[in-house]
């Protein structure tokens, strides 16, 4: 007997979109996104827009609920407000990474001044956007994050697209592709032979390509149980990984961010 009228505030609906001119072809339909924002004035239009785009949208207004949701299941992206009633959004972000959440996190900050401070802290977020923001810009950044992370999700073990085929217009370079499903990495069509730890390390960096991954994150994800104390093993493995990528001619570089961690970028260091 429910009123079938539109009530899109908290729905998970995915209305078909009628946009014709969408050049950005990443498929967001059914991808789960968690909006963590206590201000309805911001959350509701955001939820509505994301639903219209095709995302499956969950919304919570508190940090604790956010952690529960994001670590419970299929959430691929989190849009995270900093000023939450029960927790600091930065702590929510750190906590999510500590708990192994490896989807995208975009932090919403109040002002540009705050943005600078927050970015400097490096809490494991992938991107930041200052309020007030244009919805179109946020959508573009979310798609960019999904695109970065969707190779592993889209890859079928043993099947799928040929490695390296996804780099548009790349003829003479050898783009790096990393496929966690089959645990293989390719430079162009040539497989890069990696040890287990080298591969795990690369997969972590690749998942956050273009963003800094902290030493702690890497230690937690790659060495989990027995990393108490020295991270020398990380440096040793990283050196071997760099050497192998370099030898294979992969079109990437791993930059050391002193005192913080590492970042995998497109383009060779000396190119
Ligand atoms: Ca808030």
Helix content: 25-40%
User: Oligomeric state of the chains?
Assistant: single chain
CATH topology of the largest domain: Rossmann fold
Report the sheet-strand fraction.
15-25%
Unique bound compounds:
calcium ion
The major pleated sheet works out as: 5 strands, parallel
Total strand segments: 11
List the helices and strands in order.
EHEHEHEHEHEEEHEHHEE
For the record, the CATH architecture of the largest domain stands as: 3-Layer(aba) Sandwich
Biggest sheet, strands in spatial order? 2-1-3-4-5
Q: What's the level 1 CATH class of the largest domain? A: Alpha Beta
The averaged pLDDT comes out at 79
Structure characterization notes:
The structure is a single chain. With 271 residues, the protein is α/β, with parallel strands linked by helices. It folds into 2 domains: 32-148, Response regulator (Rossmann fold); 176-266, Orthogonal Bundle (Arc Repressor Mutant, subunit A). Helices cover 38% and strands 20% of the residues. It is built from 8 helices and 11 strands. The strands form 3 sheets. The protein has a 5-stranded parallel β-sheet, sandwiched between helices. The chain has a 3-stranded antiparallel β-sheet with strand order 6-7-8, with helices on one face. Helix 6 packs across helix 7 (215-223). The longest helix has 20 residues, at 135-154. The model is unreliable at 1-23 and 151-172 (pLDDT under 50). Calcium ion binds at residues 38-39, 81, 83-84.
């Amino acid at each position: 007997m429910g009123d079938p009228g539109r009530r899109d505030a908290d729905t998970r609906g995915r209305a078909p979109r009628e946009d014709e001119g969408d050049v950005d072809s990443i498929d967001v339909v059914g991808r789960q996104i968690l909006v963590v924002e206590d201000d309805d004035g911001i959350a509701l239009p955001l939820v509505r827009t994301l639903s219209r785009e095709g995302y499956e949208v969950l919304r919570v207004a508190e940090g604790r609920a956010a952690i529960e949701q994001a670590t419970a299941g299929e959430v691929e992206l989190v849009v995270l407000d900093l000023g939450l009633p029960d927790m600091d959004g930065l702590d929510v972000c750190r906590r999510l990474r500590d708990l192994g959440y490896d989807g995208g996190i975009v932090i919403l900050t109040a002002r540009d001044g705050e943005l600078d401070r927050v970015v400097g802290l490096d809490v494991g977020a992938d991107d930041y956007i200052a309020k007030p923001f244009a919805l179109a810009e946020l959508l573009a950044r979310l798609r960019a994050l999904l695109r970065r992370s969707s190779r592993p999700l889209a890859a079928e073990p043993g099947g799928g697209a040929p490695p390296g085929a996804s780099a548009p217009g790349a003829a003479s370079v050898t783009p790096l592709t990393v496929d966690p499903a089959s645990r293989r990495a390719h430079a162009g069509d040539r497989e890069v032979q990696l040890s287990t730890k080298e591969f795990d390390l690369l997969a972590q960096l690749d998942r956050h390509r273009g963003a800094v991954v902290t030493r702690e994150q890497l230690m937690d994800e790659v060495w989990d149980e027995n990393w108490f104390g020295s991270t020398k093993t990380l440096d040793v493995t990283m050196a071997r990984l760099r050497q192998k990528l370099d030898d294979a001619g992969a079109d990437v570089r791993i930059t050391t961010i002193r005192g913080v961690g590492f970042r995998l970028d497109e383009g060779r260091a000396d190119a």
